[in-house]
Specification:
Radius of gyration of chain B: 13 Å
Helix content of chain B: under 10%
Strand content of chain A: over 45%
Largest sheet of chain B: 6 strands, mixed
Helix content of chain A: under 10%
Number of helices of chain B: 0
Oligomer: heterodimer
Strand content of chain B: over 45%
Largest interface: A-B, 20 and 20 residues
Order of helices and strands of chain A: EEEEEEEEEEE
Structural class of chain B: mainly beta
Shape of chain B: globular
Largest sheet of chain A: 7 strands, mixed
Distance between the termini of chain A: 31 Å
Chain lengths: ~110, ~110
């Protein structure tokens, strides 16, 4: 158990809909990272937040957005969902704001878009 | 942007043998190279990492080597055990950009 929690574990929805994925980092960690894992694209870095502020941005689509709240939990919002958005979404957390800090991954949320 | 290739895509070894997985990257400014292990149904787990100012790093049965000139880095696992069976991912952090790019993964099977 990494100490990172993600909810829900599974999510099934339809094309065009909007969903919110939630992540709670390990106690004491200030950074939260979001990743997408699919058969087509592999593992992709989406975005990082550090202590409430966006720190780094990867291959995140404009239809996707994220935020980190004062209690340090984070939410990833996915809108206008397409079939190709079906994937595992992982959240990770680390103590500091740099990628060289060890990232601890959560168990993931499996999103299925029908 | 950064591009990371990883070989082989699958690797089978006998228990006790060594396993080597190689990655190449395109961005010469990349400065951080971690390796992750992902077991079935779980999130990736960092197993070892190396920074661009270091050529080799070891942690018990695991080692990583970095050749900056050739832009490649390798994971070496010695005395493999069945519990080493998993998918292994390499990654590279862009030096000037913000992206963190993963290789496509290697499925390692250690046969008892």
């Amino acid at each position: 158990d990494s100490g990172v929690t993600q909810t829900p574990k599974h999510l099934i929805t339809a094309t065009g809909q909007r969903v919110t994925l939630r992540c709670s980092p390990r106690s004491g960690d200030l950074s939260v990272y979001w990743y997408q894992q699919s058969l087509d694209q592999g593992l992709q870095f989406l975005i990082q937040y550090y202590n409430g502020e966006e720190r780094a941005k990867g291959n995140i689509l404009e239809r996707f957005s994220a935020q980190q709240f004062p209690d340090l939990h984070s939410e990833l919002n996915l809108s206008s969902l397409e079939l190709g958005d079906s994937a595992l979404y992982f959240c990770a957390s680390s103590v500091g704001g740099g990628f060289t800090d060890t990232q601890y991954f959560g168990p993931g949320t499996r999103l299925t878009v029908l | 942007g950064e591009n990371v290739e990883q070989h082989p895509s699958t690797l089978s070894v006998q228990e006790g043998d060594s396993a080597v997985i190689k990655c190449t990257y395109s961005d010469s400014a990349s400065n951080y190279f971690p390796w992750y292990k992902q077991e079935l149904g779980k999130g990736p787990q960092l197993i070892i990492d190396i920074r661009s100012n270091v050529g080799e790093k070891k942690d018990q049965r695991i080692a990583v080597t970095l050749n900056k000139t050739a832009k490649h880095f390798s994971l070496h696992i010695t005395e493999t055990q069945p519990e080493d069976s998993a998918v292994y991912f390499c990654a590279a952090k862009e030096g000037y950009g913000q992206n963190f790019v993963f290789g496509p993964g290697t499925r390692l099977s250690v046969l008892p």
